[in-house]
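Please, structure for the following, as tokens.
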Amino acid sequence: MAYAIIKTGGRQHRVAEGDTLDVDLLDVEPGKTATFGEVLFHADGKQVTHGDPFISGAKVTAEVVEQRKDKKVIAFKYKRRKGYHRTVGHRRKLTRVKIKSISLGAKKSAAKKTEE
């Protein structure tokens, strides 16, 4: 099974075709496609390709399923014996995407060079 490791929103995600995952908020409407150009690693059973830091020409395309919010995270600040306590909470905004395809542009250009 071919998979890739992409970087988006300061995080790295392992993706394969057909996977559904939540990434940090993207400015893309549901139903449209998003393209991730920062591919760090690609493996397909036989060959392994890694970038320095990214694989040039490689991209992962995904369909945006929905924009959503994560579970609420509560942070409770407290200092003992001082009468100080604060409750702070937030919900991360996420985009749920479904991976459609993983393509290595560099592999095709390398094949053309060997034919010449």
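Residues 3-67+96-110 form one domain. Strands lie at 3-8, 11-16, 20-24, 33-36, 39-44, 47-50, 58-69, 73-79, 84-90, 93-104.
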